[in-house]
């Protein structure tokens, strides 16, 4: 590459000689090329060594190369998704702390979407997002070829902003509905999947349970949700009562911004949070029928 | 708001006869979207088609079929109509009304978003 560029420069020089110092030009080309190359190599090597040790320790046959190729592809996809989600702006003005408005960080949203993709394919599903807020999770779902996303939000101004930003970012299939999840009546089982980041229930007690129960009723498929780790045992019981499976997919340190200073006296407080999958308890019945 | 959303909305105030909501359109917009045959075929069984076709014909598209045609997969003209009705037509301004004669609660649609929030005394 460097050679080609330098030869081109040579040709230019012979055709119309100018005062430009050609040696300097070549030097710069080589320098930039080297640094870039080293960076790319280091990046690849780092991910090769650090991330999935099984696939990358010994690349001996073609299958391993294929795995590696898929791994690189996934990594690129993840980066693309994250940079797409970074376009979602935070709440405009002062967030309403009665509603516990806090944005899901783009990096978390990316990881959450990846975790869901590991569990199931999202293609052509009808999804819903309760308490969509800035629309971060909705945007994440839209990237996965879903059929449609219904985003429910209580705050009217936030809903308008979210509709606008999402329309600018994506031409696709989503709709916003302003409603109060507490008394909203859902026709049962119309939606295939629900992904939500509900309020954690620090301001209004039990609001997270209300969201979950509504989600269980509305969805005929899996429900994915983010909850405080301290409520884990209670939620496990709740899931069993509603004939749902319970599986913690990942634990996060969720950053709550300074805006929530009333609760947290530190500059930036972290809360321990679980990302949970509430699946459907169906398999036993199926086996009996067979 | 798309008509797909109308397919999911009920009156939040009453328990019986609260579906489907009557729809009144003041302003609607058509925004073009890529036609995906597979996606729309998978969507059809999830729809309440009777409700959809009634509302579509009430809104003025009289030729829209009352039932799903037998050979849906080959019926490209129908699928394109359905695509236009479901995904490309946005109701920007209007009103939803509860069909229950004793309720008749109005839900406004402003800037393309329906507002289904009840006031405190209604809950």
UniProtKB/TrEMBL annotation, chain A:
In Swiss-Prot or TrEMBL terms, this protein is called Methyltransferase-like protein 5
Q: Which family does it belong to?
A: Belongs to the methyltransferase superfamily. PrmA family.
InterPro entries reported in the protein's UniProt record? DNA_methylase_N6_adenine_CS, rRNA_MeTrfase/Polyamine_Synth, Small_mtfrase_dom
Q: Name one GO molecular function term.
A: nucleic acid binding
Tell me the Pfam families matching this sequence. MTS
Keywords on record: Membrane, Transmembrane, Transmembrane helix
Is this entry keyworded tRNA-binding? Answer: no
Ranges for domain Methyltransferase small come to: 126-214
Organism classification: Eukaryota, Sar, Alveolata, Ciliophora, Intramacronucleata
Q: Which organism is it from?
A: Paramecium sonneborni
TM spans, by residue?
25-46
Automatic annotation (TrEMBL), chain B:
Has the keyword Nuclease been applied to this entry? no
The entry's cellular-component GO terms read: nucleoplasm; perinuclear region of cytoplasm
An example molecular function term from Gene Ontology annotations = protein heterodimerization activity
Q: Name one GO biological process term.
A: tRNA methylation
Q: Does the keyword Mitochondrion apply?
A: no
- Where is the protein found, in the record's own terms? Cytoplasm, Perinuclear region; Nucleus, Nucleoplasm
Q: Which InterPro entries match?
A: Trm112, Trm112-like
Q: Name one Pfam family in it.
A: Trm112p
Q: Cite the entry's keywords alphabetically.
A: Cytoplasm, Nucleus
* Family classification: Belongs to the TRM112 family.
What's the protein called, per UniProt? Answer: Multifunctional methyltransferase subunit TRM112-like protein
According to its UniProt entry, this protein's organism is Paramecium primaurelia
The beginning of the lineage is: Eukaryota, Sar, Alveolata, Ciliophora, Intramacronucleata
